[in-house]
Amino acid sequence: MDGENLRTLGFLNEICRRHEISSLAPKVRDILEYSSETDHVDVVILGRFKAGKSSLLNTLLGRDVLPIDVLPATAVITRIMPGSTDRATVVFENHAEALIGVDEIARFVTEKENPDNVKRVARVDVALARTGLLSRLHLVDTPGVGSIHRHNTEASRQWLPRVGAALIAISVDQPFSENDLVLLQELAPFTPLITIVLTKADLLESSQLQAVEEYVRRKVAEGFNRALRVMSVSIRAGHEKSLERLRLFLENEVAADTRHSADAILRHKTAAMVDACRSYMNVTLAAAEASQDARAELSRRIAEERKNIWLVDKELSMISGYLHEQALNDTEKRFLAHRGELTRGLQADLARKAPRFRGNLSREAAEFRNWLGASLETSLTRIGADEQDAWRGIVEQADVGLNRVVRAFKDRLAAWVRRALGVEFAGAVFEARLEAPRKPSLRLGRVFDTHIDELWFLIPMTAFRPLIHRQFRRTIAWEVEKNLYRLSSQWTEAIASSIRTMMLDARQHVHGELDTICALVDRAGAVETVEDIRRDLQQLERITAEWRCAPARSAAAAAGG
């Protein structure tokens, strides 16, 4: 990294420390860490869960390294780079490291074997000796955003400051949603190199695919105010040309001059942080330079908002309560709708498995329970995955409703700041936390109402086996219904817990914004603070002016040569 960027990042880090700009400080530190890795470019693939990110990267690598599953698989950031030998390093959140085999990656990066990231893994670094990976690029697989697993979305968003070039994976059967636009907007400050990759292109005919590509380009231009490259790919046989186009793009436009690409990306990240810091400091300076009357009026309005904050709290609670009631009404109906099909399927499977049960009554009852437990867990996990759209739908309603209340409050607050200080106040971004249930917790009852299986030595199985297997069949129906009710209850509680958490986050955010403005006004009288702010702002303005002049100087030099 050049000295100019390094000095600027160091200056931003110092401003964040002295003026306690806690919202920017972690991002600046992440960019400083990124700045030490300019010998390569991290190509990060981002997007919704089940968009085919891991499958696409495996195909680009030319080998199956990343685990894939029918359920949301990737739970942890996985970074792949060239190496002299195959190896993988698990980096934990406490900075401890563990060397593992490449075939052990799934134990640490998948939702199945590391649910809710209980192993506290920060990322897994994978070095591969023989791969289609370009030597000057690192490929980074990220957890899908928007799944029911909150920590997955958080892991991907926390990685944004470290993104080099970005591939936004969008499945052609779910083209460009509001969540994709939000991801683009969040990504924009951290890289100028963003490409939309439409995956699973084999699902559409050529004319349909062209229509989807055009639709995505139009939606990106409308919502993002910037044209982006859109490429369609498929990993299926017969679509090799689409993958070759993606490889050539990475070769010719990202990896051709790695140093230049890395410097451009870093400069983009730093410039975005300079702009954000200037905005925050302008608000702080305006509060410090405002007249006593203006500050008094703003203080009065803040006191009035604080007095009536219970109305905002009440509105947030009403939204939470209404959607909790909706979850209670809807969830049980949705899960019990699977009862007949699941019961018939298990009974049919039992008819195929039962002839293999051979032994005394106690042994056959144990075999039946083990089989039913495993089959029910698999089926209920699948049903839970199938119904996650309904779960997400209710939670997204809560997100929309709570955000509207928060936005209305912040608009009022911004209006008072504008009138008193003459500057715009955007405040911190409100992001509600989402939580989801863990995998189903099964409780199987006894196969028999009495402890008859303990008297197995008195029961001749040759004569009684048909009756016992009939009891097994009846037990399936009862266990299916009971566990569907349990699963419905778990999901209902999970939805309620998630909505409650979001409501508390919204309430905390509203109170925090009020406290922030109050603190700005209270600190406004310190002369030393005003002078510090002015000096820092002047330095930020000089940095911005110099960077704007740099492209013009470069162009003039090129023309003169």
Explain the overall architecture.
There is one protein chain. By secondary structure, the chain is an alpha/beta fold. It has 2 domains: 218 residues, P-loop containing nucleotide triphosphate hydrolases (Rossmann fold), CATH 3.40.50.300; 205 residues, no CATH class. It contains 16 helices and 9 strands. It has a 9-stranded mixed beta sheet with strand order 4-3-5-2-6-1-7-8-9, sandwiched between helices. Strand 8, helix 7 and strand 9 form a beta-alpha-beta unit. Helix 2 packs antiparallel against helix 9 and helix 13 packs parallel to helix 15. It is globular and about 95 Å long. The two termini are 26 Å apart. The C terminus is likely disordered.
